[in-house]
Every structure is written in C-alpha cells, then in structure tokens.
C-alpha cells in the first residue's frame, strides 16, 4: 500500500518541489495551501503523515497540529523558518514528531518523512511492556495508565518504550536523539520537550517525577515503579 502524505504550505513553489521529491520517493501526495483546506482534507481522508508549515494564513500551523492531535496520532513533520525556535518548541509541545527548518533540502525532508513513518510502524519486543499501572501494547501502539488510555504522539510512544526497555540506565540528550530519533545532529531541546510532555502524562506529580528522573550532568533515567 502506498503511504499518503499531506503537504500543507502557502508557498506554491515549496508545495510543488516537495510534492515532486516525495512522489519520486514513492509516496502519494495531497497538497493544501492553508489551514482550512488542510483540515477539510484531513476530515475527508486521513493521511499517513502530514508535512506542515507553521506560518499559514487563516488557521495557522500550530492550530492545525493541535486539531490533528485531538483526532489521533497521525505523525506530523513541521516546517519552520530558521531562527523561529519558540514556534518550533511550541509545535513540539503540541505533539509534532519532527521538524525541518527553512530553507531546507527537499531530499532531507523526504528522508525525515521516511524516518518518522518507519518509527510510527516500529514494533518492540516484547509485545506488551508493563511497569505496574503503566502498560504499553507496542504492536497496537497504545498505552494505558490505571487502565485509562494515554494520548501519546508517535515520538512520545517511541521514547517511552525505549526508556522502559532500558530502565535503570541514564542517557544523555544527544544519545537519545541518536537512538530514538535517528538523528546524528539536531536541537537537543527536542528531547527536553518530549520528556516534559511524558512526565505530564505518566507522573502523578510531574514536578517530582518518580519514573522519569533527571540525572544531573548526564540526562535522564527511567526507574520502574514495580519489580518484575
């Protein structure tokens, strides 16, 4: 089955270039020039991934990303202008899975899309990962806490699965970028944002985490609350 990509950008030239590169890479591509058109296409036919410019007329990219997250876990790759760190962090906080800064290489964007889709479909062993009241079904890509569903983005799920699978070990942000994101370089604040979001979802008191701890001078460590 051909994977479908929705590209949302108000620049006709950017849309056309990205479309050609993604179609060359084997994807089926739909285009939207603004947020309202993107939301209509999303409602009509859910894509496998969205490439989303944050600076859109009318309904902006952050609002589109927010509504995508309300609907489910469709992966989102943001397009942001160079230097717009606050917008990039805001997008990651809402739940975007990756980002590319303008001006960008269309080939790099196609590789990022491929990487995010691959991770969205990744499975871990064993099928069920459990830590007391926190359970991840890695084949179904779902998570529950106290029996209630957790709304996790693709990247949040991957990061949490990695942490639980490597409980008790401390990892630096650069290593997490490499092993979870597959990035040899990148903004390490991406990891900080995702850890903060995970704490808000799995910790009883995110300010005093018991599972996902900060190891000063190193990075982060996951400590199981139950004994296997």
TrEMBL record:
SMART domains according to UniProt: REC (SM00448), Trans_reg_C (SM00862)
Sequence positions bearing 4-aspartylphosphate: 53
Domain Response regulatory stretches: 4-117
Species name: Lentzea rhizosphaerae
Protein name as catalogued: Response regulator transcription factor
DNA-binding residues (ranges): 126-224
Domain OmpR/PhoB-type intervals: 126-224
InterPro entries xref list: CheY-like_superfamily (IPR011006), OmpR/PhoB-type_DNA-bd (IPR001867), Sig_transdc_resp-reg_receiver (IPR001789), WalR-like (IPR039420), WH-like_DNA-bd_sf (IPR036388)
Coiled coil: none
Keywords noted in UniProt: DNA-binding, Phosphoprotein, Transcription, Transcription regulation
